[in-house]
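Hi everyone,

Forwarding the result from last night's run.
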Amino acid sequence: MKESRIDDSAVLPSSAEPSFQFCTSAEGPLLSSGYRQLKKLVERAGLFERQYDYYARTVLMIWGMLVLGVVILPIARLHGLYLLDAIYLAFVFGQVGYLGHDGAHGEIFRERSKNHIFCLIHGNLLLGLSTSWWTRKHNLHHSNPNCITLDGELEIAGLAFTEEQVRNRKGLMRVLTKYQAFTFFPLLALTALALRVESAQSLVRTRPRHLIAEAVLACSHFALYGWFVFSSLGVLQGVVFTIVHQVLFGLYMGSVFAPNHKGMPMLESGTELDFLHRQVITARNIAPGVVTDYWYGGLNYQIEHHLFPSMPRNRLREARRIVKAFCIANEVPYAETGVLSSYCEILRYLHGVGRPLRVTTTHVGNSFT
């Protein structure tokens, strides 16, 4: 099988930016000999080769699903089934999000410009999200998974993942953190809203290179979405549809991303840890299966995705076989569990972190002084 060679920079998107930081005292990640050996095994299996046929089929299928959801909305209204369409489109929007995610990692095309255009379509236009904001935020997360000071994925209102975050919570956020194991899923339902707000704020503050294109496409999304929904359903039913659709879309996305790292080991800034160990020990896989792979968009292979973020989605399952065997042979902790078990682990972790806020006032005072 033909090998597809890549250099080490391919596993570290955006790491060349002057302002980029890493959760290690070294200048950038430490690419150990173990990682290089593992990458050679994956390369020899041809798992970095572009999968144009796969992505062509996937894009056509998802666009077909999207068109179907749009076309049947007026019909569904006549039969009082428009909320079923909202549920269906929440799932479809999640699938669109996976395409934007893959494009941002350069999994689809060789040329960066083509991947960027692909992301503008599937991120800004179809979802109303800023591609530049999300790409930088996500790349920073990939370079610093579960790093207390640098992983932006740990900054979620109402949730705390470290004792320091618990101590800094005030007012309503403190109350939510106190019972965060119970408020976790309701907060995930706000994911779509939070992503849109952060996208808009980022466009205003950072003014990215393609600001006009991003702003026009994102605004077009909301204009077209609002026009179609309310012209098809009217004001009252349109509002209900929008709430159900966006809440379930947010819950879907939040519940898919949560098992990846939540409840896994946290890293202090300055931790001396090579790239292989940092990516593996902070991530959690969800056991593979036909339904699971489709539902998670390949992100259930989180360990492999973090080790090789530019690898096409449909090759991650085969990469898992190589990576898991390599980790076991080299005594690198490799976490994999089932869907329900992953959420139980997360909730137990969150409940434990919030415990100091649930003790008596006197005890709390002693804990934080």
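DSSP finds 17 helices and two strands in the chain.

Cheers,
N.
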